Amino acid sequence: MSKRIENNLKLYVVVIGLLFIVLYLTFASYFAPPRTITLERIDDQQYVVHYVLADTAIYDAPIEKGDQIVKMDGIPAHEYYSEDDRIDGYYVVPGAVQELTILKQGNQVQTALLKDDWRGGLPQDLFIVLFILSPIFLILFTYMAYYLWKNKRDQPDARILIACFLIIGISFYGNVASYNKDIVGGAIIMIALPAIPYIFMHFMNVFLEKFDLSFISKKLLASLFVIDVIVSIFIWSNRYLFKFIDIKGMNPLLIKVTIAVGYGICLFRLIQLFLRHRQDNSPPLFKIFLVVHIVAFTPFIVLNVIMPYFFNGEDTNVPFSTLFLFSLPICYMYLVSSKQLFDIDFIVTRFRRFLVVAFLPAVIIVSVIAAVVDFGFVLDTGKLVKLFLVMLLSITLLLYGNEILSNQFRSRLFSNVFNGQDSLERFSRQLSGVMKHAELEHILGQELTEMLPLCSYQFFDVDLAAKQVSPLPNTVMARHASKSILKEVSELRIAELVRLSDGILLVLGCFKHTYRVLWLSNKSNHTQFNPDEWKWLQTITRYASLVYENLYSVERMVEDLQDQLNNRKLTSPWMSRLLFCLSENERQKLASDLHDAALQDQIIWYRKLETSMMDYPMSPKLQRELLEIKEGLLDVIHQIRETCQELRPQLLKEMGLAESLRHLIEHELLRVNFSIELLAFPVNATLSNELMTGVYRIVQELLRNTDKHSRADCAIIELRQSEDYILFRYTDNGIGMDEIAWKHNRMHMGLSSIHERVRSLEGEIKIITSIGGGFDVHIRLPIKLSEQGQYASYIYMVE
């Protein structure tokens, strides 16, 4: 038999088996009313109503708790039932009973006949769940199973989901049969439903193999599954067949505990794995699993395990709570079919926020309903809790859906409503082409005209020190505004909004102590700015101020550069820093080229030479010559690596200035004939890359000068922080030099470079030296640059 025929045969067997189960459940469920009355035997002759499903009226006469059932279809109750008919310590009135003879508590005999339209006598929520939602869910789950079988049947995790979908669909559909105390319906609810958590654990084991993870040990899972099946079969057989232990309420409690245990194991492992993998890329995956399992199983635990025993309620919430299991297959089908995960953090954050907002309205609605209903009939605590949960969830989902729909259709359905987000997006797109202040002001004016048509505006230059506003206002309102600015404003800050008596002041930028502001009048209809408009004004002011400050910075740099060109010399610190920065960039490029090209080629040729010397026989003379060439290549490789390290010190960013200097000194000690001592005291401030690079280059140059000219035996380097400055000192005991002569000697280019580098960092340098008196350098560098220096670094500095 071929594999294809074998697979088709298995498929046919599964389909036929499912059809048989569905047909059986249909005949057992939908052609007779559900069993809604439970009796308790007082003695051999008396059967008293123990429980009647709330809001049920399938008989034409009311049946209440405490009534005695005398006859059923003319047969005395004590003859109608046998010992084997007892289920969970009680006796159930079959749905097929057409006539009940009832002895009321006042010894009044009454006859109750089954209504022809008995479905209309069921509670509305129960009728919808049992007779409408159950068939719909069976169809939906079957379709999802078919979809996975058609598109993903080659994946092991998809095949597990197919089985799980079918089990959940059949479990929903078997709700009615379970209510009718049917033995097959009971088997589905008591055996298949508790197995769902363990099947999903098996699915997660297979699914997580894609991420090299494991959810639970296979042996442990198999053991738990076997125990679950044994316990479930025992409960089912104890209820319907053998009745080993007949304790009232024991079987329902055991089946709930079995489901709760499976859920608890899933939840425990998900929390454990989430905490274990918080630092890698797995937390979103485990958070999705965690949220979905909480949504799926928590309603069942709360409504069917906690509430019946805390509020003395009956087990009427199973159909409602099992609806939440629908979230499991939807999520897992998405995970199997999709290649990307949805942003669970975004969803949970939004849901939590809407849940808090919905709490108070849900409390108010439930309180009003309870107050109104109490005038007619009693509404028990269990119903109130259930109603509150439904209201809370409904309002939360309504708020969540409202946000989604408003984002999708707001621009189409409400085009006249103030939409600041679209305006900001439009404004930000236009900013990329702005090169002048006039262009920016034109774009800003267009947005103000469109978004706030009831306001007028004008741009001003404000000098608070000189008490001047320019240009001259061209309207009466603007003239009043200019006076209000000088009268009411004592301080301005960039990117802030200032309220005036006749409008709002938007502070856009500052150039040479003169602020560029935008005055916006109050609305002509005398209404206040609403929160959306105020937030939009704040945001667009920040956008515009950033562009203004950038344009002003460029103007400062251009003016400074023009001054330098007019003086025919480059003396500005920011210009020197720019040149050093460009030099560092070129050093990095050169180091990268040397490392990626020349060094790699040398290594390749070295290895080829080494291989040839080992593989081919050669004379001793040739061997010695090739060995010399090999050693020469090794020296060249070492030299290139040293050059790359000198051009681009990698440790500066990774380990900081002090460790980089220690590494530099360790390297220098291998090639110089004097000792070097580093005294690096703790530096608490965060140093910029420019400052660290500058100090590193200064040390390199000083060590090079000492090696070439000083003839020193010892050099000492000190580095410390003093308030907002870095203090650096370099001393050696060499021959020294004439302090006056070296300033006029162009041969000392190294010292000139050090002077220029210190000046570029806005620092101070002092050199103390004399012939035979050694060499002493004191340098003080500011940790933070001046405002002009910061602008220069912002524009020109290239990492």
Automatic annotation (TrEMBL):
<feature type="transmembrane region" description="Helical">
    <location>
        <begin position="220"/>
        <end position="241"/>
    </location>
</feature>
<dbReference type="GO" id="GO:0046983">
    <property type="term" value="F:protein dimerization activity"/>
</dbReference>
<feature type="transmembrane region" description="Helical">
    <location>
        <begin position="384"/>
        <end position="402"/>
    </location>
</feature>
<keyword id="KW-0808">Transferase</keyword>
<dbReference type="InterPro" id="IPR050482">
    <property type="entry name" value="Sensor_HK_TwoCompSys"/>
</dbReference>
<feature type="transmembrane region" description="Helical">
    <location>
        <begin position="12"/>
        <end position="32"/>
    </location>
</feature>
<keyword id="KW-0418">Kinase</keyword>
<keyword id="KW-0902">Two-component regulatory system</keyword>
<keyword id="KW-0547">Nucleotide-binding</keyword>
<feature type="domain" description="Histidine kinase">
    <location>
        <begin position="695"/>
        <end position="785"/>
    </location>
</feature>
<keyword id="KW-1133">Transmembrane helix</keyword>
<keyword id="KW-0067">ATP-binding</keyword>
<dbReference type="Pfam" id="PF02518">
    <property type="entry name" value="HATPase_c"/>
</dbReference>
<keyword id="KW-0812">Transmembrane</keyword>
<dbReference type="InterPro" id="IPR011712">
    <property type="entry name" value="Sig_transdc_His_kin_sub3_dim/P"/>
</dbReference>
<dbReference type="GO" id="GO:0016020">
    <property type="term" value="C:membrane"/>
</dbReference>
<protein>
    <recommendedName>
        <fullName>histidine kinase</fullName>
        <ecNumber>2.7.13.3</ecNumber>
    </recommendedName>
</protein>
<dbReference type="Pfam" id="PF07730">
    <property type="entry name" value="HisKA_3"/>
</dbReference>
<feature type="transmembrane region" description="Helical">
    <location>
        <begin position="126"/>
        <end position="148"/>
    </location>
</feature>
<keyword id="KW-0472">Membrane</keyword>
<feature type="transmembrane region" description="Helical">
    <location>
        <begin position="354"/>
        <end position="378"/>
    </location>
</feature>
<dbReference type="GO" id="GO:0000155">
    <property type="term" value="F:phosphorelay sensor kinase activity"/>
</dbReference>
<feature type="transmembrane region" description="Helical">
    <location>
        <begin position="287"/>
        <end position="311"/>
    </location>
</feature>
<dbReference type="GO" id="GO:0005524">
    <property type="term" value="F:ATP binding"/>
</dbReference>
<feature type="transmembrane region" description="Helical">
    <location>
        <begin position="160"/>
        <end position="177"/>
    </location>
</feature>
<feature type="transmembrane region" description="Helical">
    <location>
        <begin position="323"/>
        <end position="342"/>
    </location>
</feature>
<dbReference type="InterPro" id="IPR005467">
    <property type="entry name" value="His_kinase_dom"/>
</dbReference>
<feature type="transmembrane region" description="Helical">
    <location>
        <begin position="183"/>
        <end position="208"/>
    </location>
</feature>
<feature type="transmembrane region" description="Helical">
    <location>
        <begin position="253"/>
        <end position="275"/>
    </location>
</feature>
<dbReference type="InterPro" id="IPR003594">
    <property type="entry name" value="HATPase_dom"/>
</dbReference>
<dbReference type="InterPro" id="IPR036890">
    <property type="entry name" value="HATPase_C_sf"/>
</dbReference>
